[in-house]
Amino acid sequence: ADDAARTGAAERNAQLTKPPGALGRLEDLAGWYAAWVGDARPRITQPQVLVFAGNHGVAAQGVSAFPPEVTVQMVANFKAGGAAINQLSDLAGATLGVHALDLDTPTADFTQGPAMTEDEVCAAFALGWTAVDPQADLVVTGEMGIGNTTSAAAIAAALLGGDGWAGRGTGVDDAGLARKQAAITAGLAANPGRSGLAVLAGLGGRELAAMAGAIAGARAHRIPVILDGFICSAAALCLHAEDAAALDHCVAGHLSAEGAHARLLEALGKTPLLSLGLRLGEGSGAALAIQILKSALVCHSGMATFEEAGVAAG
Amino acid sequence: ADDAARTGAAERNAQLTKPPGALGRLEDLAGWYAAWVGDARPRITQPQVLVFAGNHGVAAQGVSAFPPEVTVQMVANFKAGGAAINQLSDLAGATLGVHALDLDTPTADFTQGPAMTEDEVCAAFALGWTAVDPQADLVVTGEMGIGNTTSAAAIAAALLGGDGWAGRGTGVDDAGLARKQAAITAGLAANPGRSGLAVLAGLGGRELAAMAGAIAGARAHRIPVILDGFICSAAALCLHAEDAAALDHCVAGHLSAEGAHARLLEALGKTPLLSLGLRLGEGSGAALAIQILKSALVCHSGMATFEEAGVAAG
């Protein structure tokens, strides 16, 4: 991050026509964003939403309320403009990129061994990295993939330890939840590596690897990122496990209704911007949060100073 | 509210391409809004932000970190486009109406007797009522008035009882906070009436009366309202004290950093949409929340159904 831009933004913030601190977290967001893009008075004009889709071998264990063919059906819905993320991206003035990763070839069932080979995880990571538009001034990473809350919960369990990472996902019943928990336990045993990248390959999925790649790629371009919910956070956790500073260019867009998301965000050291009970994925919560970040910057960069407005500074 | 529109919206919601309930509070908001506007598939295209400004006799008690002349200076800033609310209204696609109420004639000091006569409070209420554009499809009510957190805290204390309603406002120091608390105690003694409208006249201010009038006027037109922070909520409380259903067409836009706002919202039975530490007033938190409500409606009204998209419904 750029210290000169950070300092310049703080100086500007102190002169704006409001009591000190009265815009609360919006002020913090503006300073953080300014530092990452290296501009003390920036605006967001080209946000990019990236949705990655993948299929999961572990879905065969009956861990989801929906059948695996819904992944490809929802990709068609994204491309036709009918999903929530289409509406939210349009409203936020963002471009939407949809990337389906080898949907006809699900990952291997991680209860039996690694979900992906090294070549497969690297290819998915690289696809995510290169999906980032270098001209974008904000990136949102989202996903679609029947079975992927099981993958995300397994990643969290592997890297953070403890129980209770499995949740209801899209709405699985008690029996399904028990199968999900059993699959995670089996997956942890079948994939003993505990580095971030080993866990991503062993327990992740192509869309999770692509999100991790996009987050890392955005960092290379100094583009701030808004993280979405539980699955996106699990993908981000794999980077965080390799380097605790790897997510400094990211904010958490929202707290998902998926039960374990709060614990996962706490492990990442992130406080969510929104908490509206969403548990859809697709990047939907992060896309909502684009408007919060835009709001922070229109205030920071558009407001008059006390001197410009002839207002007494108290 | 319109039961047919509510039912129609619920039927539509159940068919949209997402797991049931996955959009969380956005789904509730869409159903509530649909019922109030009488349209099962509505969108927000004409939001109106109303900012009312008033001066307070109680400011002479030294209750604010800013001098009273800041009220008129900030009104000029609103009209010139330099304040936070200008930026936030523009970003949300809202029109902004700014109404300064007799700034040269502050209300009477409520520590000595009623802040406003019956004629004065009625005139301010009527101004707020008629400021609502009947063509608007959403109204936000905000305010500016040095001294008005003292007025709002006094209203809350009078109608809800208990202590601790006084907070730091724009940033008053410990001595100022003690003066603020003393002024509230004196105001409660000098204004013994405890009906909502008696409290509004006795302890309120012109901008608070105008906000109450705008909230009531919007109801007459069946226009949903987003409430702003502590001061707006205190104005709304005066209506709520007269009729517990008077705010059914309102949602709470945000939880302010002003300490007692959470208690006040609890008394109103409202859960805030956002909690970002704002304590600016001007309608700023509610204007941010316009985008959340718009997001709820673009999803509700723009998404494809399972049948339209050819997606399996689980």
Automatic annotation (TrEMBL), chains A, B:
Question: Which residue positions are annotated as catalytic?
Answer: E282 (proton acceptor)
Which pathway features in its UniProt record? Nucleoside biosynthesis; alpha-ribazole biosynthesis; alpha-ribazole from 5,6-dimethylbenzimidazole: step 1/2
Pfam families linked to this entry? DBI_PRT
Q: Which domain of life does the UniProt lineage start with?
A: Bacteria
Q: Which GO terms describe its biological process?
A: cobalamin biosynthetic process
- Supply one GO molecular-function term: nicotinate-nucleotide-dimethylbenzimidazole phosphoribosyltransferase activity
The UniProt record lists the EC number as 2.4.2.21
Q: What does this protein do?
A: Catalyzes the synthesis of alpha-ribazole-5'-phosphate from nicotinate mononucleotide (NAMN) and 5,6-dimethylbenzimidazole (DMB).
What is this protein's name? Nicotinate-nucleotide--dimethylbenzimidazole phosphoribosyltransferase
The lineage is:
Bacteria, Pseudomonadati, Pseudomonadota, Alphaproteobacteria, Rhodobacterales
**Which gene name does the record give?**
cobU
